[in-house]
Input
Amino acid sequence: MSPRTIGVTEVALRDAHQSLMATRMALEDMVDACADIDRAGYWSVECWGGATYDSCIRFLNEDPWQRLRTFRELMPNSRLQMLLRGQNLLGYRHYEDMVVEKFVEKSAENGMDVFRVFDALNDPRNMAHAMAAVKKVGKHAQGTICYTISPLHTTEGYIKLAGQLLDMGAESIALKDMAALLQPQPAYDIVRGIKETYGEDVQINVHCHSTTGVTLVSLMKAIEAGADVVDTAISSMSLGPGHNPTESLVAMLEGTDYTTDLDMDALLRIRDHFAAVRPKYKEFESATLVDTDIFSSQIPGGMLSNMESQLRAQGAGDRIREVMAEVPLVKADAGHPPLVTPSSQIVGTQAVFNVLMGRYKVLTGEFADLMLGYYGECLGERNPEVVEIAHAQTKKEPITERPADLLEPEWDKLVAEASALDGFDGSDTDVLTYAMFPSVAPGFLASRDEGPKNVGKTPEQLKAEATSSSDAGRAVQ
Amino acid sequence: MSPRTIGVTEVALRDAHQSLMATRMALEDMVDACADIDRAGYWSVECWGGATYDSCIRFLNEDPWQRLRTFRELMPNSRLQMLLRGQNLLGYRHYEDMVVEKFVEKSAENGMDVFRVFDALNDPRNMAHAMAAVKKVGKHAQGTICYTISPLHTTEGYIKLAGQLLDMGAESIALKDMAALLQPQPAYDIVRGIKETYGEDVQINVHCHSTTGVTLVSLMKAIEAGADVVDTAISSMSLGPGHNPTESLVAMLEGTDYTTDLDMDALLRIRDHFAAVRPKYKEFESATLVDTDIFSSQIPGGMLSNMESQLRAQGAGDRIREVMAEVPLVKADAGHPPLVTPSSQIVGTQAVFNVLMGRYKVLTGEFADLMLGYYGECLGERNPEVVEIAHAQTKKEPITERPADLLEPEWDKLVAEASALDGFDGSDTDVLTYAMFPSVAPGFLASRDEGPKNVGKTPEQLKAEATSSSDAGRAVQ
Ligand SMILES: [Co+2]
Ligand SMILES: [Co+2]
Output
């Protein structure tokens, strides 16, 4: 029997540099790798998402739509893939449905093929309209399960969610493990459960980070359970808070009942390209190589460092242990949301407030909204006493409907506001840029003509640094 | 059914710092972790070997025997484990049998429990006497398979070698993968094969490096196949050319049919200890995080960098591709030895000579000895034409007997020579230090009274560096 071919999604152009170097990589440092990426044989190439869009206009003076069109042109044979925060699109609030449709339509028009649609709370209602919009333009709608660990999250629950996503028309299911929490056994159980419940031909994509050092094993188990596609990053853009190395995946499967059919020569050229690029962005890299704390603390690394800096800003840097102990309680009161943007920030900041000012003496606006249902529903029930506090503080009523159902049509208003901006070119994509990032877009549109900025070091700077530091010794076995 | 408990060998005190920081860690940077290591529940604690011994006397002015006694005292409940190069002991030549016995006897007396006995060529005759000596003093004799990939190395061959080691009285079998070449499927096949051939109760220990990024999966597969003990390093001393993280192994097995029974609180304290120590030795670290090249080149990273510096020294740095192409040929002519110390250096240097001076125009003395059988037998036949060249060049006869059988008794001579050295204290252990490293021992014995040197940076130096460099940005998902 010939081995089963496992698809691979290469994340170097999006999640890898987002996770490793604060999303700072400029398009010009990617273009020379595109021909090899296009011919390597990936199932898809992830290359666009909220943080890359944000970084383009905030730091790089790059039009994110121009970036997308460039990828489309340079990788004509590849499925381009993006990460979409459901009704939030690439921003931090819910958008009215017509804005969602416009965004998806323009993304498809400019070259996007696969839309991985997720919601931080795993609330299917927040994904439904985006998925429908993707299907309407004839592109691949991938429904996403955000994986987390809590007393309420079970394999059965994830299998049920997969069913809801399939009912909404998902062409594939992504199991998304943003915090590297997915251990081998649950990876196996969830994938197997989905296949056994909904059919072996349901396509399952598995996305893991490598922070805890264990998730390549999880990918192996997911593959043994029937997973169809897995996400990896070329080795020179891998590991730490990033992803498992693509070449290691290839090596892992050699001799087994599975194969990748990737072109190793192309992979090595892609690797060499990014090996030369990565040092340019060293100042944006975290020092974390492996961190298994999250298994006991349940607190992702980025969330922890956020809380630490909030405490330090209040002169209370020594109270981090109290805040860490407070997080599970706040999370439980909120109904056990997965801790991913934005829920991780909302829960973390409230835990800091609780420790500094007394439990729920003051709620942040976002936490009150979370408690009142304005972000959607979680798996667990929210603590009614805290809901009451949120109501009393904000005078807002708790809701049970889909949050976006409360929104008025807003497209015309967005067009009008964008039209008033210096540098606005009249396009729908400029309106969308303004809609996603209203405080950053004006500055970007005004300066766009100056062209892209590269915040990495120049070859000259790197060379000067290299000659001033001695060669590192090489360990010999 | 309760899960099967997998033993763990912690390598932080030996192989981890050997692989990551050129074996430079001083005893004083280890002692504070020993109480936690002792209570963590490891199957054994690897803490001694050739490179640590060498580094102690060459760089650290530390008596390696004193280091061993300190470990014994600080970890009374642990099995201490060492790596022993068979008839080479910790040196680079074959020793006469009585020296082997003396060394093993003194090691046991000073606290060693488990002797992992290996030979670079996998020649059982080079391991037999050391194993017998270990058994004679009532300690654990572990026979080792050095794993490599070649046209001649097969799963069946490794299973057969395991049988030879068991026949020699091995109490356990180590599958040693020094180059991170062991992929998941062969890991499974070899372990399963040994168990099925010689019985399920044959203890198998698996040692992998993490260089290629794939070997935690190999450990998982080895465990599924029945492996009893695996080697890992605490996370803060892991990855890159080192080993898989201990805490990741624990996380990997959660929820499966296997468990480790390690004390996680102790692990976290050990981790924090070495997280504070590791930056002191940063200048000795290699930049390699993951490297899968070895799967195509079959050349370990350390060997490659050796050959590169040899070429550069001859002004021929641009000929590395030719040398890399020459290596498989030289390796085949030598009968396909695994490439590990010292065979990696011997084969690599000859490949350089072949490229620079013409194929086999000049043989190194070591390569001639290898071809004439003075290092023992390999799996493959040696190329008779090259054997003839070696004979012609050196006038030495090819041998087929065990190399150590040619040696005269040498203990009394070693005692006499050591006795003449400044600082010699009259002990057998000093004689052994001289026997292992005759060119380094005199300097060490003469300076021993000055006490240990720490080549790591001081806290003050680290603090000064930290304040002069800006905080690294932390990537946020
Ligand atoms: Co991700
Ligand atoms: Co090793």
The domain at 294-405 of chain B is CATH 1.10.472 (Cyclin A; domain 1). Chain B touches chain A through 62 residues (CB under 8 Å).
